[in-house]
Each structure stands twice: as structure tokens, then as C-alpha cells.
Write a structure and sequence with these properties.
Layout: H1 26-37, E1 44-45, E2 52-53, E3 64-65, E4 68-69
Antiparallel strand pairs: 1-2, 3-4
Length: about 80
């Protein structure tokens, strides 16, 4: 009997395990691990009113983007 408790045929030895066909590249490993590090979009703050704003978007409260009035504010 083998360590797993299964019977093996005489002369066959231990049972074979699955073996990867080729080496996993560094890029493949790193891109797989990067998915676990992702924390979502970080909120920035409006320079005019201080409200939380998504990056590269006009402020929803005051309607400014990079210090210039772009959109009329929704009140």
C-alpha cells in the first residue's frame, strides 16, 4: 500500500501526480497576484469645496474640475 492508502500494482511504484506542461512565466504569476492587491479606485478631494470626487471627473457638488467651473452644480 502507498501512503495514500490505495493499493498499487507490483512494479508500478507510487501513483503519478499531475505535472505542469510548461513553466509559468513571471508575468503570468504577477498578473494573477495583482488581482488580490487591487483596492479599487481611490477617492480624491475637490480643491474648491473639499467633497470626495472620483479621479479625473468634475465635482458633483460644485461642478469644478482642476479649479475651473465646468458644469452647473446639481443642488
Amino acid at each position: 500500500m502507498s501512503r495514500t492508502g490505495r493499493k498499487t500494482e507490483p512494479g508500478k511504484g507510487e501513483e503519478k501526480m499531475a505535472v505542469p506542461k510548461r513553466k509559468t512565466s513571471k508575468m503570468k504569476i504577477r498578473s494573477r497576484k495583482a488581482a488580490n492587491r487591487y483596492e479599487g479606485v481611490q477617492a480624491t478631494f475637490c480643491q474648491n469645496c473639499g467633497a470626495a470626487v472620483t479621479p479625473h471627473r468634475a465635482c458633483l457638488k460644485c461642478g469644478t474640475y482642476k479649479g475651473q467651473s465646468v458644469v452647473e452644480a446639481a443642488e
